[in-house]
Amino acid sequence: MWMGSEAPRWPGLRLAGLLLSGLLLLYGCAPGRKAAKPRPEGWSDVGTASWYGQPFHGRRTANGDVYDMHLLTAAHRTLPFGTVLRVENLDNSREVFVRVNDRGPFVKGRILDLSYEAARRLGMDVSGLARVRITVTEDASTQLAQAGSYTLQVGAFQDATLAAALARDARRRGFDVRIEHDGPWSRVRVGSFASRQEAERELRRVEKRLGVRGVVVRSD
Fold it and tell me: For 150-218, CATH number?
């Protein structure tokens, strides 16, 4: 062990220490994710998209929003929050407008993580993945505002256990279902639709699969 009033003069060791300190400072301050990069209108990219719903529904997104799987939103690794994208499913030519409010996906080979509602409109909610083209576009507030205007009510019970049983059955059959409580009533509702016509088309399928009678109601 060295002892004395002066530090040993080992230039090589001191230089290595300075370099190590610099590296630690650099990595300690570096962000864990890529910084957002603005893209001009018309910028486009092609790749695989996925979607996410439960258990993220109701949690905070990267920009501080409460994630609502029934709205038209998406997660992108680098695009600034608020960027509006036109997303086209290259397998069926369906398209939807979404607003970026989250970060992801962090799975190699994927370029976008869509909300459940956006995936449903693109026809990829069952497959889970789709090859898409994403294009930065001008504000599409009209299209985005249409999300979630209608829903299907397939049951209303004063006994919450009956509502829970119907909801479980609907989930087992692959439906997006939720229970909304209104005073003594527990209302079982399925899906989110931009138009009454779209909701009525889906209602026939839901009634047949669940063996119930339902109604189309406004959800806003």
Answer: 3.30.70.1070
| pLDDT tens per residue across span 73-92 | 999 999 999 898 999 999 99
Q: Report the relative pairing of strands 177-182 and 84-89 from DSSP bridges.
A: unpaired
**pTM for this one?**
0.53
What region, left, alpha or beta, does residue 33 occupy, with left being phi > 0 and alpha being psi -120 to 50 degrees? beta
Class of the domain covering 44-145: mainly beta
Any idea where the domains of the chain sit in the sequence?
A: 44-145, 150-218
pLDDT in tens, 136-175: 987 555 455 455 578 899 999 999 999 999 999 998 888 8
Contact (CB, 8 A) for 46 and 133: yes
Pairing of strands 95-102, 73-75: parallel
